[in-house]
Structures are given as structure tokens and as C-alpha cells.
Amino acid sequence: MPILKNIGFLATCKDEGEQGEIHPIKNAAIAWQNDTISWVGSESDLPSEYNNEEAFDADGKLVIPGLIDCHTHLAFGGWRSDEFAMRVQGKSYLEIAKAGGGILSTVKETRKASEDELYEKAFGFLKEMAKLGVTTVECKSGYGLSLEDEMKTLRVYQRLAEDQPMHIISTFLGAHTIPPEYKDNRQAYIDLVIEEMIPRVAEKELAEFCDIFAEDSAFTIEESRRILTTAKAAGLTPKLHADQLTSCGGAELAAEMEAASADHLEKISDKGIEAMAKAGVVGVTLPLASLYTQEEPLNCRKLVDGGVEVAVATDFNPGSAPSYDLPLAMMLTCNQGRLTPAEVLKGASIYAAKAIKRDLKLGSIEKGKLADFAIIDAPDPNFWMYHYKGGQCLRNFKKGRKLYEKSS
Ligand code: NIG
Ligand code: FE
Fold first, then answer.
1. Nearest-angstrom CA–CA distance, 207 and 221
2. Closest-lying ligand to the alpha carbon of 143?
3. Which amino acid residue places its CA nearest to atom 9 of ligand 1?
4. pLDDT tens digits, residue range 47-101?
5. Is the dihedral of CA 303, 391, 165, 362 positive or negative?
6. Of all protein residues, whose CA lies closest to atom 1 belonging to ligand 1?
7. pLDDT digits (tens, 9 = 90+) for 143-182
């Protein structure tokens, strides 16, 4: 039974209490057996039977639960750096999309890419994410938009889940946008999603969640309701890209559908906040997306005050959020979303676990949970987020095994 000793500040991030309550233990230790935590507490209380065990030293630093990036579009072909340069000069995300760029240009590149090419690229991203303290990643399809190309993307995630140590959670996002070959017949594409894609994804068990881009410029609330109802009946849990560009009732639909999460939410209405709080839908803030699209960031404080649990994720994708730096997204959520470092930490751990329905196994450092945790080069969460400099993860453990160690 290995142990981690000399933890200066252990942020256990247990679910109980408010968003800011991270249930810290000072001068702590963690013990685990195989992949599961067996003991957590003050080091002075460590039972004597642990004394002769293999011990790791946290050097008095901060230890946090393995971070969970609960919203990414991990597998895609190509990049879109040209659009980035256009956006900073004043072209909007929507203008670029309408001119044939945006999601559709990534669809073209993703269709061209082989399964192996997508796999290799995504594998490389995961390795880099592990260096940041991330141990679990939710991954969406949505750049294939044909039966074959959506399956190809989801198979990449299935292979990654088997071949490498990071936890992968797959989400089907066939309703990301209408592909070019259906541009004059959106109804036929929606029928394809409903009648062929969802049943196939469910039958092959290629995804656990079904997401949708609910937006006037993508799928209307009525269309979204239809698609998510079908997905739910097929056993996929709904998730939504909601109220990102316009206040169109996405949050309210998330509540109605009992979605695991509603994400983006920059334009959420007061009614939407109320409905999500009542239904217990996790709100996922994606501050890198609002930053890179030059949109007003989400006021997360308003959601937390309204009773919504707010998770933080990167939205990593080649268009609106081309960075997988979750600690950076956390720092932005402090500064722009007005949450404290403790609140964003709970947002990237236990509440992120709730957004992917894994809170029984992941997201906090407690007996019985998987032994996922990271040592951060800071004395506590406040200092980590305040003196933000990147590269502060010293060691990262997944299921009790070393996933990454920074060379000194
Ligand atoms: O989450 N909002 C829709 N989809 C993605 C963007 C995808 C893209 O630009 O390629 C998002 O921001
Ligand atoms: Fe997204």
C-alpha cells in the first residue's frame, strides 16, 4: 500500500457544502491500495501499519484531486490559426462560420484524416494534458457529421480509453452543425442523426453522452429537444452547448431534459439559472472560448449565487478554444468569472466529475475513490491561481500510478 506523505495542503474537494468548501487538511497523507484510496487524513494520525510502506514525499506542497476536463473536442483534423488572426482583427466567430470557415472547415479536415492520424494527434494532446495535472478528459465527436466519420471519431476515443492511462469519457455530438451536403435539407440531417447515428452509437456503446449545439445558428430548441429525447431513450445522457451566442432557452431545455450539464452559458437568462438550479444541472464555464472569440465572459458568480454548481473546462477545439490548459481556464474563471480559487478547484474536480456522472469514483480525495491526484508547486490554491505561471504540476498520479513527473 503506497502512501503520499508531507502534504502541506490537501484540498480533498469533497462534495459536501458550498462551491468554495474544499475541505482542506493541513500536513496530510494519503494511502492507496492498487487503484483506490484507502486512507486520507492528518499525517500525525496515519495508522502505524502504513509506516513501512512505499512512501512518496509531497515536499510540503499543495495536493489536489486529478483534474477533470469535462468538455473537450479532442479529436480533429487540421487547425484554424488563420481564423484566429481574422478574429483578433474584428471578424466575428459567426461571420467566419457563415463564410465557410468555422466548424465546417474542421469537418473537411477531419473527414480527410484517417482514424490512425486522429488517434496519434489526440494521443499527443493527452500526454501534454497529463503534465498539467489532468487525469480525466471528456471527448466529443462532432467534426465528422456523417455516420462513418462520427463513428471514426468515437472509435478513436474508444481506442484511447483502452491504450493509455488517462480516463476517457465519450460524447456523441452529431448535432454540432448541419454539414454542407445537407445545407438545403436540414430536416434530412436531423433525421439521419435520430434514425441512424444515435441507434448505431448506442448499439456499439461508443458514447455515454449525447451533446448538441443548441443555438439559433445551429439547432433550434425544438430540434434539440427532439434529438435529445431520442438520445435519452437510447440510453445516452443529454448534455448541451447552451446560450453561448444568444439567449435562446438552452439552459431551460437542459433543465427540462435533466441533462448532466449545460455548457458555455455566456448569454444565460435569469430564468435559465433558476431552472438549472432547480433541476440540479451542472453549469460548465468555458472561459477560453469566450476569451478566444472576444465575447463577454460568463459571470459565474451569478450562477453560484443562484444555486448552480459550476464546473470549469477548456472546450479544447481548433476554433473557439485552441488550448487544453485547464489550470489556465481555472485562473481565467477566477479573474473573469469572479470565482475564488477554492471555487474553481471544486469546479475542475468534483463538480466536473458530476458533469460526466463520475462523482462516485472521481473528483475528490476520499477513501474509496480512485487514487487520482496531483502535486502542485504552490502552498495552497489561492497562491497557485494568484502567482499563475503554468507548469506547476510536479507529479500526477492516475489510479495510484505515476502518470507524469516533472524533471528538476
Ligand atoms: O464549443 N459551440 C460550438 N462548438 C465549439 C466550437 C467548435 C469550433 O469552433 O470548431 C465550442 O465552442
Ligand atoms: Fe464545445
1. 23
2. 1
3. 319
4. 998 888 889 999 999 999 999 999 999 999 999 999 999 999 999 988 998 888 8
5. negative
6. 315
7. 999 999 999 999 999 999 999 999 999 999 999 999 999 9
Instruction: Indicate the average pLDDT of the chain.
Output: 97
Up-side HSE of residue 51: CA atoms within 13 Å toward CB? 5
Cα(354) to ligand 1 centroid in Å equals: 22
C-alpha cell at 121: 494527434
Question: Three-state SS across the chain?
Answer: CCEEEEEEEEECCCCCCCCCCCCEEEEEEEEEECCEEEEEEEHHHCCHHHCCCCEEECCCCEEEECEEEEEECCCCCCCCHHHHHHHHCCCCHHHHHHCCCCHHHHHHHHHHCCHHHHHHHHHHHHHHHHCCCEEEEEEECCCCCCHHHHHHHHHHHHHHHHHCCCEEEEEEEEECCCCHHHCCCHHHHHHHHHHHHHHHHHHCCCCCEEEEEECCCCECHHHHHHHHHHHHHCCCEEEEEECCCCCCCHHHHHHHCCCCEEEECCCCCHHHHHHHHHHCCEEEECHHHHHHCCCCCCCHHHHHHCCCCEEECCCECCCCCCCCCHHHHHHHHHHCCCCCHHHHHHHCCHHHHHHCCCCCCCCCCCCCCECCEEEECCCCHHHHHHCCCCCCEEEEEECCEEEEECCC
- Global pTM reads 0.98
Q: How far is the CA of 399 from the centre of ligand 2 (A)?
A: 27
Tell me: pLDDT of 395 over 90. Answer: yes
Which residues are near ligand 1 (CB < 6 Å)?
A: 102-103, 106, 213, 241, 244, 289, 315, 317-320
Specify the pLDDT at position 283.
98
Centre of ligand 1 from the C-alpha of residue 317, in Å: 7
Domains by residue range for the chain, with CATH: 3-66+364-405 (2.30.40.10), 67-355 (3.20.20.140)
Determine the distance separating the centroid of ligand 2 and the alpha carbon of 70, expressed in angstroms: 10
